[in-house]
Amino acid sequence: MGGFAESVRERVRAARAAVEAARAADDPAALAVAEDELDDALRIAHGVGVDPDRGAGSTGQGGATQ
């Protein structure tokens, strides 16, 4: 599932970045859209058993989680 899992994680990362950008821009409409995308991306990740916080910058050998 390597490539698929990474695609799911990338979607979550992009959605999180969009949420942060909308917050920084103080744009409520963009924030609502970005939060919906993040919710959707997280729902998909959990639905297919992908840990969205594992992978990027991680060795996958434990460590702190958010």
What descriptors fit this protein?
mainly alpha, 66 residues
Question: Would you mind describing this structure in some detail?
Answer:
The protein is mainly α. It has a domain at 2-47. 65% of the residues lie in helices and 0% in strands. It is built from two helices and no strands. It has helices at 2-24, 28-47. The longest helix is centred in the first third of the chain and has 23 residues, at 2-24. It is elongated, with a radius of gyration of 13 Å.
**Percent of residues in helical segments?**
55-70%
Radius of gyration in whole Å, from Cα? Answer: 13 Å
Average pLDDT rating = 86
- How many H/I helices? 2
The unreliable regions are 57-66
Largest sheet: none
β content, as a range? Answer: under 5%
In whole angstroms, how far apart are the ends? 23 Å
Give, in order, the helices and strands. HH
In total, how many beta strands? 0
Shape: elongated
Secondary structure category: mainly alpha
How would you concisely characterize the structure shown here?
The chain has 66 residues and is mainly alpha-helical. 65% of the residues lie in helices and 0% in strands.
